[in-house]
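Subject: design request, 191 residues
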């Protein structure tokens, strides 16, 4: 009967040891996967930031081209107006003719400024998005750095240590395999 209890205790102890090792392996694997997921998400956020910055540059370039084209159209319109007014013998330097030409130039300038402002506002929004994406990337990178597979595995092993030690102590006493002179500490710190 004592042999059966000793064998059962030995099997139980081995099962607890195996469980502790598997638990540590599982904790390591889970932590490694979490760490990799954070690193991957940081890379995604960094890529999003780069795309937003490229889009902002593109918007500014297109805005400059559109503003330039608008200036050319204004110049062409003013030239056509001058030619039409002059062909009728109207003095271009005074009165209504001068007002029409000045209004055309003024409105053309407003169009160019509006195109430029719109491009700048859109580029600013994209740069803001890029900055936010970079901040998110940094957060994910910090989370990945904080993840410690080895520490999680060690913590898992340590949390299994007391039950395994208790089982070993019981098995050792049951088999006469030598017992410590004082009992193992308990979870509450008692000796």
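Subject: RE: design request

Done. Sequence follows.
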């Amino acid at each position: 009967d004592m042999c059966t209890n000793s064998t059962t205790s030995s099997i139980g102890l081995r099962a607890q040891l195996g469980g502790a090792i598997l638990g540590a392996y599982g904790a390591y694997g889970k932590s490694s996967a979490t760490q990799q997921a954070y690193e991957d998400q940081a890379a995604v956020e960094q890529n999003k930031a780069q795309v937003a910055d490229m889009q902002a540059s593109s918007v500014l370039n297109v805005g400059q081209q559109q503003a330039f084209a608008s200036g050319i159209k204004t110049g062409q319109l003013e030239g056509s107006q001058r030619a039409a007014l002059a062909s009728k013998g109207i003095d271009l330097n005074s009165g209504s003719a001068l007002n029409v030409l000045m209004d055309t130039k003024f409105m053309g300038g407003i169009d160019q400024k509006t195109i430029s402002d719109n491009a700048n506002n859109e580029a600013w929004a994209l740069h803001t998005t890029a900055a936010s994406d970079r901040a998110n990337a940094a957060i994910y990178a910090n989370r990945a750095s904080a993840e410690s597979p080895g520490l999680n595995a060690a913590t898992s092993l340590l949390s299994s240590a007391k039950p395994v030690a208790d089982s070993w102590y019981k098995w050792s006493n049951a088999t006469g395999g030598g017992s410590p002179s004082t009992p193992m500490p308990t979870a509450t710190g008692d000796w």
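Confidence is low (pLDDT under 50) at residues 178-185.
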